[in-house]
Amino acid sequence: MKVDRFPQWPRGLSRSMAAQYVGVSFVMFDKMVAEGDMPQPKRFYQRTIWDKIAVDKAFDLLDSGHERDASGEEIIEFRA
């Protein structure tokens, strides 16, 4: 029987799941959010939740990365 290494990630991520999702510690994730490298969370009732899609987009832009279109292809803009 094959076991998946990673869980099926929900759309809404808790702080600990969001940090785990991008592969950093809680402290580093908090720093990334504070510095604008990761998105701010959404508040829903008494929960603080990060949108996985917003985290994906922010992760794509780290280290001079590029945004991706709906098919997953990188959007690379060139200066003329």
Strand and helix layout:
Elements: E1 12-13, H1 15-22, H2 26-34, E2 42-44, E3 47-51, H3 52-61
What's the gist of this structure?
The protein has helices spanning 15-22, 26-34, 52-61; strands at residues 12-13, 42-44, 47-51. It is of the alpha+beta class.
Walk me through the structure.
The chain is α+β, with helices and mostly antiparallel strands and 80 residues long. It has a domain at 12-64. It contains three helices and three strands; from the N terminus they run βααββα. It has helices at 15-22, 26-34, 52-61; strands at residues 12-13, 42-44, 47-51. It has a three-stranded antiparallel β-sheet with strand order 1-3-2. A hairpin with a 2-residue loop joins strand 2 (42-44) and strand 3 (47-51). Helix 1 packs across helix 2 (26-34). The longest helix has 10 residues, at 52-61. The protein is globular and about 35 Å long. The chain starts with 11 loop residues before the first strand and ends in a 19-residue tail after the last helix. The mean pLDDT is 84.
